[in-house]
Amino acid sequence: MKKLFAENILQGKVAFVTGGGTGITGGVARAFAEHGAKLAITSRKEENLAGMKATVEGFGGECFAVAADVRDFDAVEAAIAKTVEHYGKIDIVVNGAAGNFLCAAEQLSANGFGTVVDIDTKGTFNVCRASFEELKRSKGQILNISATLHYLATPMQIHVSAAKAGVDAITRNLSVEWGRHGIRVNGIAPGPIEDTEGMKRLLMPELKEKMMRKIPVGRFGRIADIENAALFLASDAANYVTGVTLVVDGGSWLLGTSLT
Known about the structure:
Helix 1 (23-34) links the parallel strand 1 (14-18) and strand 2. The chain is α/β, with parallel strands linked by helices. It has one domain: Rossmann fold, CATH 3.40.50. The protein has helices at residues 23-34, 50-58, 73-87, 110-138, 158-178, 197-202, 205-213, 223-234; strands at 14-18, 38-43, 63-67, 92-95, 141-145, 184-190, 245-248. The chain is globular and about 50 Å long.
């Protein structure tokens, strides 16, 4: 997909991205770097970040990789501190670390439910809270990667639906509480994005064609679609937009065809 934004649209910004090594959030991280941002990417294991770090540095971008489990507030605080030590500031925080698997509610263990909520919801809060002072200083912004699963009901996804509903609540509440500090807080809810590992794992091949026919715009999304939405929300073009979770799904959820 061709570039739609000026290459320097995020010049001078520092973006801290969780789950920034792969998938949708990896694409957002790379796109931010391609448009001028300096990156800090984090994952539970630093080796998960090596490929993205090499990619970004390969086209001349800056990428700092730091390991942290978003479920561990102290580890997140340390990663934020290391990023500030490395770059001097943080302007943008992207919460993309997430967990997912298919499981019927009656077969789902309390541990399985809790693990997803801990990563998605608690992890999002941990990163937001740990970065608050830096974002207040830079009058920065937060972008939370959500989903559309909980808008209606998605079988086999009660754990993720609950977790992402919590993420949306965090987006709304922090936008109200932290707006006075100059901090914008928004989200993106991707629909069915075909070039993700999650889509390959969660959608059975026999359902793919049937599902695509129900998408109003007639195609599955691509990671590039989420990248463009993220670039808009992170740019000055959206400087009066806060508290919004932007749905990027081709109209899927309106017909009950949502699947992230």
